[in-house]
Amino acid sequence: MTAFDADLSGFVTHKPGEADRLELLVRGARCAACMARIEKAAAAVRGVEQARLNLSTGKLSVTFRAGKADPARVVHAVEAAGYTTTLFDPESAIQTRDAEGRRLTLALGVAGFGAGNVMMFSVPVWAGLFGQELTPSARALMYWASAIIATPCALHAGMVFFQSAWNSLRRGRANMDVPISIGVILTLIVSFSETIQGGRHAYFDAAVTLLFLLLIGRWLDHKLRARALNAARDLLALQAPIARRLDADGTEHGVPVAKVAVGELVSVTPGERVPLDGQVTEGFSSLDNALITGETAPLPVEPGSIVHAGALNMDGRLLVRVQARAEDSALAAIARLMEAGAQTKSAYVRLADRAASIYVPVVHSLALATFVGGWVLGLGPREALLRAAAVLIITCPCALGLAVPAVQIAASARLFRKGVLVKSGAALERLAEVDTVVLDKTGVLTQGRPDLIDPPTAMLAPAAQLARASRHPLALALVRKAGPGPVCVDAREVAGLGVMGLVDGRPARLGRAAFLDLNNVDASESELWFGFEGETSVRFQFADRLRHDATATVTALRKRGLSVEILSGDVERAVARAAEGAGISKWRAHLAPIEKSKAIDDLKADGCKVLMVGDGLNDAAALSRAHASIAPGAAIDASQNAADLVFEGDGLMAIVQAIDISRAARARALENFGFSALYNVVAAPMAIFGLVNPFFAAIAMSGSSLVVTLNALRMHWAGRN
């Protein structure tokens, strides 16, 4: 049945005031070129306004102009481009991704088995070439044994590349799997030809070993994409799975958040997260919004206050009128921004890809010309084929392939010893290019928790007796300063206001200014007031202190030519104080998560390559959309998964070290590229004119790989010194 045989109009989402939308699951997309091809094919369909593919999930989102939706034509266009499609279902996407992971794991295991076992027969042949000559019959036996092991392993493991190459060629294009497939198949053909004719050289081991190395990279790439998807999943995990829905008679029922409709009432008890975006209709409390907005001070809420999914209710029961479904919540919006950011990063072309795009077609054209030219000039097909094989072997992109990964491994190991985890090699390349550093305030520039500053010493101990009866963050900070001690008698906490009780037999209160009937004071959300009944009250002020090396880190970043600014969701007064303390002149406060993400996009539009450093839920989308991103080890899982690097410890100087090492790694990689280019300029003519046979070509190729590896290890040795 073709795409036009099915009526897909029922699967187009229609929402008042919004464009029609269709979501498809696309299988077979592996690279940025695939993504561009699919989006172009879908966007070319009449009536389509926009098409966006997320490589991590395989989800193709197609937006139609009003009244112009024709989903069958979109499906046909994508399938004509060589990809398979179905209606998007998250579970189906997970199963597809898991199946791909199992396939890659099996192929990698088969290639590894073949590469390891074929060496039992290759090593005796190699030894025979160095004075311990094997008889022709013994050498033939070793080669046939190698063929029996290597050929089925290479054919099975190579199907990952063969199928992709064939699908590409059927569409009249050539992706990177085409030269890989040609190289492996040609190596097997030459090896069988030499074995049948009693030749001295066969390369069964090379074919299966090359596939093993390539599959390692393909498997790691699959894992990295899965991690990008997990970032969005971790984010949505902060949305409560169950909501306490109230019936008309006031009865509470626990139901999945997906089944709660707009306009219904839900109950949120202390210690629970708000399940859906909405407006408070009844109750008083304080919400911990630090993960969502970055504000360190708890936010008091009352009837009429707007609350967002994921906020933690601290001390009072709330009734909330739902204003948005689960898929339209603020958390879901941030998750979509993260998906878009992951897609943007997946389009980044790495150094090795840029070099390979030039190198591979040139080398294969040269080998073909050598074969045709040699045959035409009278060498005969066998000799011409051996010369072509020598060209392919001596110019094998092993050195090119190792040029970047070897450096990245050494650089990652060096950073690991300094407490920085690098999650992908491409992250180091992007980090080396940054020219602007954007810092979150809460939890990055500062310690991420309130500390009591300059307390009135005489009142600290009695105030702490009331504070020990509360779980409010400011009360906990007061207790940390006061240390262990007794709890007040008859403690009673009033939601969103404070605590009252008997301290040393006298009535006392601790909380907001209004709770102590102080109406003519300049109240702040980062303070508590304490007083005995009928006596003068005293103020306890709190602040989120800067990290110990924040100022030194900012200075070091500026010395490296980087501009530094703050994007924070906290209030202006707190951000201004942190910026002044760290010596940062550019800052913005009170930014919602989407506003942070837009600020990153604006910087990118101005030509800046941004490094984002953040830890909260409100930073997750910005981390995904930045050119490179770093999160502290204490960050939430969603932010750590969205970030390219994660650093441990209480200091920020790890950011400077990561930038320095990434720049050094880029320099080493460029040195390796330069050597690889020079090596090929010298080696290729030698193979073309028959000055080296395939065996010595293999030795030269291995030597070039050793050189770039040793150059990469300079990163490792420098780290130890």
Label this structure with key terms.
721 residues; Alpha-Beta Plaits; Calcium-transporting ATPase, cytoplasmic transduction domain A; 7-stranded mixed β-sheet; 21 helices; disordered N terminus
How would you describe this protein?
There is one protein chain. The chain has 721 residues and is an alpha+beta fold. The protein folds into five domains: 3-88, Alpha-Beta Plaits (2-Layer Sandwich), CATH 3.30.70.100; 90-231; 242-328, Distorted Sandwich (Calcium-transporting ATPase, cytoplasmic transduction domain A), CATH 2.70.150; 329-448 and 546-721, Rossmann fold; 451-543, Calcium-transporting ATPase, cytoplasmic domain N. The chain is 51% helix and 17% strand. The chain has a seven-stranded mixed β-sheet with strand order 14-26-25-24-15-22-23, with helices on both faces. The chain starts with 19 loop residues before the first strand and ends with a helix.
